[in-house]
Write a structure and sequence with these properties.
- The chain has 385 residues and is α+β, with helices and mostly antiparallel strands.
- It contains twelve helices and 13 strands.
- The chain has a domain of 121 residues: Arc Repressor Mutant, subunit A (Orthogonal Bundle), CATH 1.10.10.
- The strands form two sheets. A ten-stranded antiparallel β-sheet has the order 6-3-5-4-13-10-12-11-7-8. Strands 1-9-2 form a three-stranded antiparallel β-sheet.
- The N and C termini lie far apart (58 Å).
C-alpha cells in the first residue's frame, strides 16, 4: 500500500487503536516496542509501522521517542516567569529556540487577576547534575528581560502520562479504584557508557527509522553491540530512569486535516494543609484525566499552592467539570482545599529537554559562558530575582 494514501487523522479507527496504546501505554524499555503496540492494539506489525510512519510524516504525530524519567537524571523544575507584556513572545521564542534545557514553553493566563497571574510564561527546566538551575535561570532572565522567576521543583510525582486520544471520552470523576502511585525524585549517577546508550536511546526517530529492528541502529550509534545495548537499557529501566516509548501528538496546533487533538491545556493549582500533600497528590493522581500531578511548593506569590496537575480537553466547560469532580473528591476524602486556581495554556511549544553534561558544556561555550561559573553544589527550593 502506498503510504501517502493512508489515513493520518487521529479519529481514523485504526489510527485511534494504535494511538490509544502508543501515546502512553508502552511503559519502560521494550526490546520490541512496535511489536508491543501491535499486540495490544490487535493489529499486524506491518500495519502499525506503516500507520505510525504515515502519521509522523504528515505531522499528526510530532515525534516518536523513548522518554526518560528526567527527574531521576538531572535536577529540574517548573519555572514561572514574570516578563513585561511587550517582551512576552520574544521571551517565549528565546526559551524554545535558544535554550535546549527548557522543555515545555507555555504562555498561561487566568480567568481573572488572581494569585500569581502576573507570571504568564511557564517552562520546564532540566540542568545536568553539577550545574545550577538558579544560575541558569539568572542567565535566561538576563537574555529575556524577565523581572522575576519562581523555581518550582517537584518534591513528589503522582501522575505522568499523556494519552490525549484515550482521554477525550473520559467522564468527569473517572478514577482508579485505588489511590494513585507516588514516585520519588532522586537523581541517579551514570557511567560514561551508560550516558552513551542513554543519549542514543532518547533521540527521536526519523520516519525511515520506524521499522522492526528499531534499536539496532541506536546500538551502533552508542558504540555497543545490540545485546549490550539491551542489557544497559534494561538495567536503566530497573533503576527507574526509563519512562515510556511514545508517539507524541500535537496538543493545540491544527493537524494536516484541520482538527486538533486538544484545545484547552489547564494547569490546576490546589493548596492543601501542610502535611496532607501526599494524601492529596495520591487522590488527584488517580483521576484518569490527569496527565501530570506533582507536589510543588509555590509559596506566597501563589497563595501557598502545593499540589499542581495538568489536564487537557477540547471543551473548556468539560475541563472545568473534571476539575470540579476532583475538588469534590478531595473534600469527600477529608482533604480541605484552602485555595485553588486554574492557569489556562495559550501559545505553547514542547521539545525534549537536553540533560547530557557534555551538551551543557558545549552550549555554555557557544554562548561565551565558562561552564564552571554555572556550577553550584546545592539548590534551594525556589528563587526570585
Amino acid at each position: 500500500m502506498n503510504e501517502v494514501t493512508l489515513p493520518v487523522a487521529v479519529n481514523d479507527p485504526i489510527n485511534a487503536r494504535i494511538l490509544a496504546i502508543s501515546e502512553d501505554k508502552v511503559q519502560g524499555f521494550q526490546r520490541d516496542p512496535l511489536g508491543y503496540i501491535a499486540r495490544e492494539a490487535g493489529l499486524d506489525l506491518e500495519v502499525v509501522i506503516e500507520r505510525i510512519r504515515a502519521m509522523l510524516e504528515a505531522g499528526t504525530i510530532r515525534r516518536v521517542r523513548q522518554t526518560l524519567m528526567a527527574t531521576n537524571l538531572a535536577p529540574g523544575a517548573l519555572v514561572a516567569w514574570q516578563v513585561p507584556a511587550d517582551r512576552l513572545n520574544e521571551a517565549f521564542d528565546f526559551m524554545f529556540n535558544e535554550d535546549p534545557f527548557s522543555g515545555h514553553v507555555v504562555i498561561r493566563s487566568t480567568d481573572g487577576a488572581t494569585a500569581g497571574s502576573q507570571y504568564r510564561l511557564w517552562t520546564t527546566l532540566k540542568v545536568p547534575v553539577g550545574y545550577s538551575m538558579t544560575r541558569h535561570c539568572d542567565y535566561l532572565a538576563s537574555q529575556t528581560g524577565a523581572l522575576r522567576y519562581k523555581l518550582l521543583p517537584a518534591k513528589k510525582l503522582f501522575a505522568l502520562g499523556v494519552g490525549h486520544v484515550r482521554r477525550r471520552t473520559i467522564e468527569p470523576g473517572s478514577r482508579t479504584e485505588e489511590p494513585g502511585r507516588m514516585l520519588d525524585v532522586q537523581v541517579v549517577k551514570l557511567t560514561e557508557q551508560e550516558w552513551d546508550v542513554l543519549v542514543a536511546l532518547k533521540r527521536e526517530f526519523a520516519v525511515e527509522e520506524i521499522k522492526p529492528d528499531l534499536w539496532a541502529g541506536r546500538a551502533a550509534e552508542a558504540g555497543v553491540d545490540l545485546e549490550t545495548f539491551y542489557r544497559i537499557a534494561e538495567d536503566l529501566n530497573r533503576r527507574n530512569i526509563i519512562g515510556r516509548f511514545s508517539t507524541f501528538l500535537e496538543h493545540v496546533k491544527k493537524l494536516a486535516d484541520g482538527t486538533t487533538v486538544t484545545k484547552y491545556n489547564a494547569l490546576f493549582h490546589w493548596a492543601v494543609p501542610p502535611g496532607r500533600e501526599i494524601d492529596a497528590g495520591l487522590e488527584v493522581g488517580r483521576h484518569h484525566i490527569m496527565t501530570h500531578a506533582y507536589w510543588r511548593e509555590a509559596g506566597p506569590d501563589f497563595n501557598n499552592v502545593n499540589i499542581m496537575g495538568v489536564a487537557h480537553g477540547t471543551e473548556k466547560d468539560v475541563v472545568l467539570a473534571h476539575k470540579a469532580a476532583i475538588d469534590r473528591h478531595l473534600e469527600e476524602a477529608g482533604i480541605p482545599i484552602l485555595y485553588t486556581n486554574v492557569f489556562w495554556g495559550g501559545r505553547s511549544e514542547i521539545k525534549p529537554s537536553e540533560i547530557a553534561p557534555q551538551a551543557y558544556r558545549a552550549w555554555c561555550r557557544e554562548r561565551g559562558i565558562d561552564p564552571e561559573t554555572m556550577r553550584e553544589e546545592e539548590e534551594g527550593m525556589g528563587a526570585a530575582m
